[in-house]
Fold:
Amino acid sequence: MRKPALWNKRRGYFEARRGIPEELRAIIGRNEFRENVGANKREAERRALALQNRWQAELDEAGEKLDASKPTLSTAAKHHYRQELAFDDHDRMGPGRKAVADLNALSRPVYASRLRLVASGAIIGEEAEALIGYAADALEAKGLAPDVPRPELLKALAGVQLDALTTAEARDKGMIAPPEPTNPLLTAPDPEPTTPAEQGTGTTLGDILTAFHKERGATLIAVTRSPPLIPAGFPVLARQKRRLIRK
Structure:
């Protein structure tokens, strides 16, 4: 266990100090630990060692909070899935919805077949970027992308997009309660918050769907998407994925 630095102040007392890692300073609220441990050096050393346990506990707790606040594949997947439901809802309620529905019905099977290949790792690189790269870009722009290699993120999002397409297809068939997705990234709960004050965000797929249907009954979510590059040979898909939703 690291021993705190012991400083002999001119004022006649010793001071225990320990620096705080830069990434934890905002959580703890200061740059270093510092405390008066008395004028007697031996007693000051004893108190400094006792302080070490308390300070280390604070550092550990701050580290846990930092880890919990970082995006994961699961949180990114849930965000993307929810956004896709919002896009689908907008298409169904916006002008030209019949034409959009017909277009989606034609392009969805083709798009889904290519996504399965991305999810399996059979399609990588530029084609994978063309099919699902827009979703990764949107997550990165919002600071919601997890710290994983880009190919891994694309594979994960492709699998999530397949669940979103399944839900859209079920809605096309008039199902009042579409089947819940089966992708493990969507069904996995988020990490437990480290303090009660951090509770309150949805952690399960059921929470996401409940919140989404509440939003559907109130105000449409306004979202925008940068149009991805679509490979030649997918003109219908290009129309589907290039749409921009106005606020």
About this structure: The radius of gyration is 25 Å. Residues 5-68 form one domain. Residues 212 and 242 are 23 Å apart (CA to CA). The longest strand covers residues 32-38.
